[in-house]
Prior knowledge:
The protein is of the alpha/beta class. It has 2 domains: 204 residues, Alpha-beta prism (UDP-n-acetylglucosamine1-carboxyvinyl-transferase, Chain), CATH 3.65.10; 207 residues, Enolpyruvate transferase domain (UDP-n-acetylglucosamine1-carboxyvinyl-transferase, Chain, Alpha-beta prism), CATH 3.65.10. The protein has 14 helices and 24 strands. A 4-stranded mixed sheet has the order 22-23-1-24. The chain has a 4-stranded mixed sheet with strand order 2-15-17-16, with helices on one face. It has a 4-stranded mixed sheet with strand order 4-5-3-14, covered by helices on one side. Helix 6 links the parallel strand 10 and strand 11. The longest helix is centred in the first third of the chain and has 13 residues. The chain starts with a strand and ends with a strand. The chain binds uridine-diphosphate-2(N-acetylglucosaminyl) butyric acid. Uridine-diphosphate-2(N-acetylglucosaminyl) butyric acid binds next to helix 1, helix 5, helix 6 and helix 12. The site of uridine-diphosphate-2(N-acetylglucosaminyl) butyric acid has 23 residues, from helix 1, helix 5, helix 6 and helix 12.
Amino acid sequence: MEKLLIRGGSQLSGKITCSGAKNAALPMIASTILSDEKVTLRNLPYLQDITTMFELLGSMGSDIILDENMNFTISSKDLKDTEARYELVKTMRASILVLGPLVAKYGKAKIALPGGCAIGSRPVNYHLDSLEKMGAKIKLKNGYIEASSKRLKGAEIKFDGITVTGTENIMMAAALAEGKTTLTNVAKEPEIIDLANMLNSMGAKIDGAGSDRIKIEGVDNLTGTNFEIPADRIEAGTYLAAAAVTKGDITIEGINPNRLMKVIDKLKDAGAEIEYQNNAISICMNKDVPNPVDITTAPFPEFPTDMQAQFSVINAISNGTANIYETVFENRFMHILELNRMGCDISVNGNHAIIKGVKSLSGAEVMATDLRASASLILAGLCAKGETIVDRIYHIDRGYERIEEKLNYLGANIVRLPS
Length: 419
Ligand code: EPU
């Protein structure tokens, strides 16, 4: 397995461009199932999860063409298969995103039931309950979700809990359902707005994405489109955090700061100077040691759970004690044990981490357990004394495009070690 060797101590400086957002791209690729026409997606990030989603669509019969400008054109007309097999689903839970489009377009789907993962049990009951409300019959058999339906019918659906991919799945299904669907208690993440914009560009009638209530007037068919994947707010936030722990001075281009306001506020509380324009964010960390910042993760617009691990590192080298409450996933502190092996002083009690700042971290061999945990270990390696080796970096390749290249461009010293 490949590893990253990080020699700590560099101050990051310079300018990089944000890549396309993984969590916007995945539902967009799934949504191509809804159309008989070609859909072109621009600015797709080169990531393992994107490749897995293409593999899934390819296994069902989609045609996927990459052109010389790195744009993907996907044609999902007349799929020969509507099954997402366990081999693919077990490597990427977001495979569940094909469920809504398949039932809406083909009246059936067989999707391996995603199991738990490193960050929590992550059930998909809200997705299934909502499809049932729209008239689908759902059976769970031999580890698979088997869904079938005549044309789905619009419904009034109130989600029992806020779910990002659940909101996306049902929004896609409702786009082709008969009649009106109203979704309440929905996720308001920017990726929901992006997906609604893309579906509307294909002729869907979706209103209210980004608010508490989304109204969808079902249409008979959707056209093709040519759509650009917006920049990845979590990638941008991760590089901002990397600058904060290395006394760095960097600019990230291509990112809309409105998508990161809670993260920007917390970085300011930590002592960083931040400036932003429409499409770029600059951070300058003049303070030698960050201030501790308390964090409670929650759905957008609150502080994102996907930035919690990175802020654990800022707090770990702060001049005080910080409290982090993780309210979205029940087991998202796996990075803490590894961070403590690098000299951090963090204790965990249920969903509460108490982080006491220490004077310095020391390099160690550590193991990545999930995508954002891997990012936190790299950040810790950047500010630690000596060498850090991060193992199992396939997790990071799922969600960060060329991370060591981008960080080295900013002055870091990271080498990818072959397996
Ligand atoms: N939940 C249920 N039942 C459901 C659905 C969700 O109980 O049917 C619970 C989950 O177990 C969790 C909470 O609701 O405790 C929120 O889960 P959500 O469904 O919102 O998460 P997701 O849609 O599976 C997406 C992102 C995650 C991100 C979360 C929260 C994608 C592909 N994934 O996951 O991204 O952490 O929303 O913002 O969009 C990552 O990129 O590293 C990542 C994990």
